[in-house]
Amino acid sequence: LNARLVGACSERLMLRAPQLEDAFDLFDATRHPAFNEHLMWAAPRHLSSVVTRMKRVIARAHAGACAAFCAVDRSSGRWVSLFRFEPREQQPTWAELGLWSHPAFWGSGHGEEVTRLAIEQAFSRSSLDAVLACASPRHKVSLRLLESCGLEPIGIEPRAHESGHQVPLMRMLMTRTRWRWRRATCAFPPTASRACCSPATTSRWSR
């Protein structure tokens, strides 16, 4: 799935493989208090911990243990978000999506754009049967984003925070059948294109 996602484009975004220097932008994002509010890991105090986390993401993607990519703005090359599809042991034909977006792009529709693009690529270029996402019931922005992309709530599931305590999360699901129906009714129009120009620059912008 990694190879099938990298290079895909929407109107404003292009997907590329994650790079270690993306840790600078992710760490910059964590300086915004609201970014950390609903994370399943504690707000990092130092850049080194984010570098370590990014190394793990890249290593897992290279090993085929997950699909991970970064969305960059096509006009400026600025880092927008890190997106992942994680496998589900209980449902091997499902994938769970996760998205970390830089606060500089909040409220501009970039989160919805990259989520739609990733879901479109996942269903059209793989044999996945369903895409799952989990978000805090208190995180109304994330829930609205997922609902706007076609995912439906299916119940609460407790998850372990990295610090050890349990966090109740709302499970949101889109099946391949629902994706096909939304495409047929133009509720989920195709947004992806493989013929994509490179962004203006791919260097990090928040050094």
Protein described:
There is one protein chain. α2 (22-29) crosses α4. The protein is of the alpha+beta class and 207 residues long. The protein is globular and about 45 Å long. Residues 201-207 have low confidence and may be disordered. The chain has a 7-stranded mixed β-sheet with strand order 1-2-3-4-5-7-6, sandwiched between helices. The protein has helices at residues 2-5, 22-29, 33-36, 47-62, 110-124, 140-148, 176-184; strands spanning 13-16, 67-73, 79-87, 94-101, 130-135, 152-160, 166-175. The two termini are 30 Å apart.
How many H/I helical runs?
Answer: 7
- What is the H/E order? HEHHHEEEHEHEEH
Form type: globular
- Please state the oligomeric state of the protein chains shown: single chain
Estimated structural class:
alpha+beta
| End-to-end separation | 30 Å
Q: Roughly what percent helix? A: 25-40%
Report the mean per-residue pLDDT as an integer: 89
The total count of strands amounts to 7
* Uncertain stretches of 5 or more adjacent residues: 201-207
Roughly what fraction of the amino acids lie in strands? 25-35%
Determine Rg (CA atoms, Å).
16 Å
Lateral strand order in the biggest sheet: 1-2-3-4-5-7-6
**Main sheet summary:** 7 strands, mixed
Keywords for this structure?
207 residues; 7-stranded mixed beta sheet; 31% helix; disordered C terminus
Condensed summary:
The chain is an alpha+beta fold and 207 residues long.
Give the arrangement of secondary structure elements:
Elements: H1 2-5, E1 13-16, H2 22-29, H3 33-36, H4 47-62, E2 67-73, E3 79-87, E4 94-101, H5 110-124, E5 130-135, H6 140-148, E6 152-160, E7 166-175, H7 176-184
